[in-house]
Amino acid sequence: CALLESLGIQTAFVTVPGHIFVAFDLGVSAEEARGVIANPDDLILVGNTTWVPVEVTLRGEGFLAAWRAGAAQWHASRALGQAGFYPIHGGWETYPPVGLPGSIDLDLPDSGRISNAFSLELASFVDEQIDTLSAPILRRIETNPGSPALPNRLGILYARYGEVDRAISSFDQALSIRVDYVPAMVNLANAHYLAGDLDSALDQYRTADTIDPDRPDVLVGLSRVQNDLGHNEASRQTLARLEQVDHSLAARIGGTHAAGSATGRAAGFAGPGDALLWSDETEDN
To answer: Cα separations (Å) of 257 from 111, 230, 245, 250?
Structure first.
């Protein structure tokens, strides 16, 4: 917990009969977590916060094993009314944290070994999540091959887990079913943007804008890529259109705060993935 708290990640103690382990805050709402975690029972949901329980005595067996063991203990003991959850910040209100006096010699683990272990665990987690969440979509694609909404939804899943090439392939499949399907155009543009192909992203946003000029997701993406390509005046004009359609969204992505900016970051965007809206619709649409 101390290691994670030193990085700004909130933690908690989890108690079960005769034992104590830890949990850390994912920093996303329960609703957001349910949308991307295949099995929400692997999490601890407290109000609208989401926590990952970790049985730290099993850390040598890999993070995923330690996570599942912590989740199993939490749910089993909670069902019997015997589980406790104690956020560290709550404890600090009674017992303020203290530092250690003097200098400390640290013997850090090999960074390459840590990086490799992390990459392997992350790859296992992503593969498992994608396999679980994609299975029902793939089954529905088999029974409803004429629906562009289904490969579009599959592409969103891939994109959210960083599988951009697979996402692009799925969005292309959706557009092969219906060439004017705007949700897939928006998402394909988003995926090209994440892949660093800004020109292709711009082309897709422009095409979508021609078909449906009042869609907020189109205007957000178009302004974003115009901004990053240095087309500052065009980006401001697109944001002005967005303000007419959805003022709160325009304000949230920072457009209303950059009207006087002449150069660089004209739209007030922050990082490479912010202000991307993924468009999902039901098969009936």
So the answer is: 41, 18, 17, 9
d(CA 225, CA 228): 5
Strand pairing category for 84-87 and 49-54 = unpaired
pTM (two decimals): 0.75
In sequence order, the 6+-apart residues with CB closer than 8 A to the CB of 225 are 189, 193, 198, 201, 202, 205
Max CA-CA distance within the chain? 69
Predicted local confidence at residue 275, as pLDDT = 56
Rounded to an integer, what distance in angstroms lies between the CA atom of residue 200 and that of residue 190? 10
Sign of the dihedral through C-alpha 133, 136, 138, 140: negative
Residue type, 16: V
* Tokens representing residue 100 in the block: 């250690």
For residues 119 and 282, the model is more confident at: 119
pLDDT, tens digit, for every residue of 245-282?
Answer: 998 888 887 643 343 343 333 333 334 344 578 999 87
DSSP strand pairing (19-29 vs 11-16): antiparallel
**Cβ partners under 8 Å of residue 39, min gap 6:** 132
Structure tokens at 47: 């109000």
Nearest to 173 by CA among 160, 200, 155: 155
Interatomic CA distance for residues 195 and 158, integer angstroms: 13
Distances (CA, A) of 21 to 12, 50, 104, 157: 9, 16, 26, 32
Return the pLDDT at 283. Answer: 64
Q: Are strands 84-87 and 19-29 parallel, antiparallel or unpaired?
A: unpaired
Phi/psi for 60 (5° steps) reads -70, -15
Distance CA 190, CA 274 (A): 11
Secondary structure of residue 137 in the 3-state scheme: helix
- Residue 164 · residue 195 · CB < 8 Å: yes
Report d(CA 46, CA 52) in Å as an integer. 11
